[in-house]
UniProtKB/TrEMBL annotation, chains A, B:
It comes from Aminomonas paucivorans DSM 12260. Keywords: Hydrolase. The keyword Nucleotide-binding does not apply. Pfam families: Amidohydro_1 (PF01979). Residues 62-424 form the Amidohydrolase-related domain. This is Amidohydrolase. GO terms for molecular function: hydrolase activity, acting on carbon-nitrogen (but not peptide) bonds. The keyword GTP-binding does not apply. It comes from the Bacteria.
Length: 474, 474
């Protein structure tokens, strides 16, 4: 009997291997030093390994943790302040964003993690410009971080629709230096749990020269470029104003579309442009809730898949989406596509479950490490309580309803245990690597000062939510 | 000081009075013998009343309980078995429905209640043909039941698309007798908590004569007709085959459209037909999740509202929707309309919150009793935990984010207390009037026999989910 760190056994397992969901009954996972060393029938695994800890729960489902391929969790601090409005970025988000200090954002980041981790997210694809501090938090909390430090040449302020953004070269240069420094310090840390990606914020937020240089530096280091692409009519307008071209053809001409690119959103991509990106080898990240609420649009993920591309899912940011919960993203992705295509067979449950796990991992360059339960991959897994009302009843024949219930009924609170690299981070409501009570207290405290500091801009914009407040609708 | 049963006080209150959400800070509700006797500033209420029980919790929101205007909770027993498929009713639901006994359905009903009650639903608009037993359960559990016994002339079996349903007059007659008996026994019971509506199942499920008679009998008793209307192309096809007319014009010619009618779905209604129903005084029930997943359609609720109609929300049934949770219905209603109209300002949070409470109550004929917190109405209320991560942070200025967070971030598990007629039915995870453990055990037990009995029909239909099982996708 080989001594190892952990065996986790469950009556139902979704490994996500192969082309489907890799269902197995009564199976167990053996994990040692963070790595999956075996997966097999429970009795066989228990006969071969002597684990330091055995997790064996009746009426649970064992499956890989979720990959949130793209998010800005620090903005959780502005949850519920930017929705139901047109011109989201300038009229919804930015009146508040300017009043948020780096300290506030780090508490917002922790708040986002509270929500995401409890709902089974094990890989955070966070995208921000505070990545030195956030990488340290991720390392400390034991999560997997596929972290992107952003680079832009445009200092933030509220622009009116149709106003061309002004670039500041020194600003962009500083961002790039900071990114290179971050990469050197953090990439590969925490036994490889932390990876650093390069994040030019969008083709409209920095100039052509810097955009090219970021890519070149990324390739030199063997990492990927994580870029907002065609993220809405606001961006398209900027690109047409500046270059007289739409984003995707413009990027293609500059050799930007290839397997090194993670293209986020594609909100405003035509069918033809979508196929162009998919065929280039770039991956797509779909943020269904965020783009649905911000733009009223369902990005063309089905077209991207049909053209042979790989798609991951992202929760984007709380002001807008208002959630960091991959159950929410799976469900909305399935439902929104049924509506977009007026077809109840569009985007079935198993397909979106793959996007949130194994395909999501491939989309962000972690396909060899996580996303499925397979020997050699890292021990990132969750247990789901099958006695939660939303997961009941449990049918095994003539069809299993596990996957439909996970996607369409579960809300996230069915997750009862979350582990990364075989280390349990969350169990039955308790966070083992972060102080949830402290996060709550700090987050409750910082709202009033942010609100006060935002008041003048909020009033001057006179947006939809300003009107709703006046009318007693909020 | 007047002695009363209950005072509930909270730092934030949404009364849902007036045209908005009726926000009040630090307020309390005084309830006596089931009725709201006063609502005012907490200190004022506590100075005027001596309650037997005082519920006063920091960091909570007090608001009316939700009205689920239309559901079939007994079908929770088939959760997760009918989705991702075309021809939902015949190919998704019916292969299983025939194997479900009345006893199974009553356990399914209890399972649905577990989910709904914990998520703040206080009024159940259940629609079924087991209403004698369900009314007894509702009375026992202390909920408010706006219950509809269905009447149809068509015995259930799987029909192929295009096959005209065959009616059985004796079957319909028996249903009507049963309904009249139910009304006599149950309407008004439980201090008025139970109301009985008349439910002809749909204009395609019974003939013209019986449809007319059900309405006549309903009007004679001062209750409403609760009817599936234009619920999809399946129904439209039946109406064209049988009468050569689409549903809504056909109903109008027969004087069926007026304020006595609750019209559910309108999935297949044209814009003009929708306005016709709205202007007739009939109300609409919108089941966003259900119709989205079953048909890939967003029913025309915005048009209905614009034409002056009143709209409530319903969770419909678990196989399909897969949820009985009004938070889910509110969120999807808002998001689906943004997508349908490609407009982020379509269906803002406050509007769908009204549909789930005060407008929903009006839509089903309970506008004088529930849906808002006002003196004279019944004491149906919930408390929401504002320390749940999804409800944080809490901003009060320059805009309140309470309503957006309720609609877009909350998932239902933020509800910490639910009361009907001033009686607490659910508190901090505990169900005080039903045995949740017994429901879980029974529901887990009945899946295998239902699955076994359905196997042959499921296989013979060879639908999408059959193929998914073969391919390892479930």
């Amino acid at each position: 009997m080989r001594s190892i760190d952990l065996v986790v056994a469950a009556p139902h397992v979704l490994t996500m291997e192969g082309e489907g969901v890799g269902y197995r009954a009564d199976s167990a996972l053996a994990v040692d030093r963070g790595r999956i060393v075996a997966l097999g029938p429970t009795e066989e695994i228990l006969g071969a390994y002597a684990p330091e800890r055995l997790i064996r729960r009746p009426r649970t489902l064992l499956m890989p943790g979720f990959v949130d391929a793209h998010c800005h969790m620090e903005l959780s601090v502005l949850r519920g302040l930017a929705q139901d409005t047109g011109h989201w970025m300038m009229y919804g988000l930015n009146p508040f964003k300017g009043s948020v200090s780096p300290r506030d954002r780090l508490w917002g980041f922790r708040l986002g993690v509270l929500e995401a981790l409890a709902a089974g997210t094990t890989t955070l694809g966070n995208y921000d410009d505070l990545m030195h501090q956030e990488a340290a938090l991720v390392e400390e909390m034991g999560l997997r971080g596929n972290l992107t430090q952003l680079v832009r040449e445009m200092p933030e302020r509220v622009y009116a629709p149709g106003e061309l953004y002004r670039f500041d070269e020194a600003y962009g240069r500083r961002d790039l230096e900071n990114l290179l420094d971050l990469f050197d310090r953090w990439d590969g840390r925490g036994d490889g749990r932390i990876r650093i990606l390069f994040g030019p914020m969008g083709p409209d937020f920095l100039g052509e020269a810097l955009l090219g240089e970021v890519r070149e530096q990324a390739l030199r280091r063997g990492t990927r470029v994580h870029l907002h692409v065609a993220q809405g009519d606001r961006e398209t307008e900027q690109m047409l104003l500046r270059y007289g071209k739409r984003t995707i053809p413009w990027l293609q001409e500059r050799g930007y579309l290839d397997e090194h690119l993670i293209a986020v959103h594609l909100t405003d991509a035509t069918e033809e442009e979508t196929r162009l990106v998919a065929r280039s080898g770039a991956s797509m990240v779909l943020c269904s809730n965020s783009i649905g609420i911000i733009d009223g649009v369902v990005p063309p993920a089905r077209t991207f898949l049909e053209a042979g591309g790989v798609v991951g899912l992202g929760s984007d940011q709380a002001p807008g989406n208002n959630n960091h919960n991959m159950f929410n993203e799976m469900k909305l992705t399935a439902l929104f596509h049924k509506i977009r295509h007026q077809d109840p067979e569009a985007m079935p449950a198993w397909k979106v479950l793959r996007m949130a796990t194994v395909e999501g991992a491939r989309a962000v360059g972690l396909g060899d490490r996580v996303g499925s339960l397979e020997e050699g991959k890292r021990g990132d897994f969750i247990l789901v309580d099958l006695q939660a009302p939303t997961m009941m009843p449990l049918f095994v024949r003539p069809m299993r309803n596990l996957v439909p219930n996970l996607v369409y009924a579960a809300r996230g609170n069915e997750v009862c245990l979350v582990a990364v690299d075989g280390r349990v981070l969350y169990e039955d409501g308790a966070f083992l690597t972060l102080d949830a009570e402290e996060v709550r207290e700090e987050v409750l405290r910082l709202a009033d000062p942010i609100g006060e500091a935002s008041e003048e801009t909020f009033r001057s914009v006179r947006g939809t939510n300003f009107r709703f407040m006046e009318e007693g609708k909020l």
